[in-house]
């Protein structure tokens, strides 16, 4: 039985993947389709071999049905990810990656590995980036106080992973600070 939203501390990974599915990605359709009207906006007609931008969830469905090829995002290349990995290792701040980089890369690697050049190398670099960012997040939590936590450029999945710990620790620190400042209460 699912918990009511008020009792859930964080999103499930599946919920985050669902949200990431609305991110736009370019495809090269293998079939013709007329314009498609969706609640989130219109998708212009498919005319192979012209590329078209669609929500990720549509791209994944079409790919599974062999009706398109996905154009790998610029940030999901060996060169780009190596630069981000170097930044992660050298800089205190988190490097700039898309807000849903973890979910999008995972979905593309699982569903369309043939559309991701150097997929195994990319998988390794992403793993290294993730591990480095996890260490940075843990270090950031060491500086936690009851007023502010500064960690910018985290992805939604990363925020979701530290949220339960942060929420409990932040609330406990506030409670202790109130007692410290009001000893009679």
From TrEMBL:
Claim: tRNA processing is one of the keywords in the record: no
Gene3D superfamilies given in the database record: 1.20.58.1020, 3.40.5.50
Domain DNA replication complex GINS protein PSF2 N-terminal: 12-71
Origin superkingdom: Eukaryota
One term under GO cellular component: GINS complex
Annotated GO biological process: chromosome segregation; DNA replication; double-strand break repair via break-induced replication
Entries under Pfam families matching the protein: PSF2_N, Sld5
Subcellular localization, as worded in the UniProt entry: Nucleus
GINS subunit domain location: 75-175
PANTHER family, alphabetized: DNA REPLICATION COMPLEX GINS PROTEIN PSF2
Subunit structure: Component of the GINS complex.
Protein name: DNA replication complex GINS protein PSF2
Organism expressing this protein natively: Rhizopus azygosporus (Rhizopus microsporus var. azygosporus)
């Amino acid at each position: 039985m699912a918990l009511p939203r008020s009792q859930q501390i964080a999103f499930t990974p599946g919920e985050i993947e669902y949200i990431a599915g609305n991110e736009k990605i370019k495809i090269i359709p293998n079939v013709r389709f007329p314009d498609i009207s969706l609640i989130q906006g219109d998708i212009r007609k498919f005319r192979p071999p012209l590329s078209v931008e669609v929500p990720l969830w549509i791209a994944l469905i079409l790919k599974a049905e062999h009706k398109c090829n996905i154009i790998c995002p610029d940030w999901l290349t060996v060169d780009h990810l190596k630069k981000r990995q170097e930044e992660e290792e050298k800089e205190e701040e988190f490097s700039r990656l898309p807000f849903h980089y973890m979910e999008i890369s995972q979905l593309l690697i699982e569903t369309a590995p043939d559309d991701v050049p150097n997929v195994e190398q990319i998988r390794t670099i992403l793993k290294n980036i993730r591990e480095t960012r996890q260490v940075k997040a843990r270090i950031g939590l060491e500086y936690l106080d009851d007023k502010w936590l500064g960690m910018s450029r985290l992805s939604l999945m990363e925020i979701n992973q530290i949220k339960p710990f942060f929420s409990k620790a932040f609330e406990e620190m506030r409670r202790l600070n109130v007692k410290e400042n009001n000893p009679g209460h």
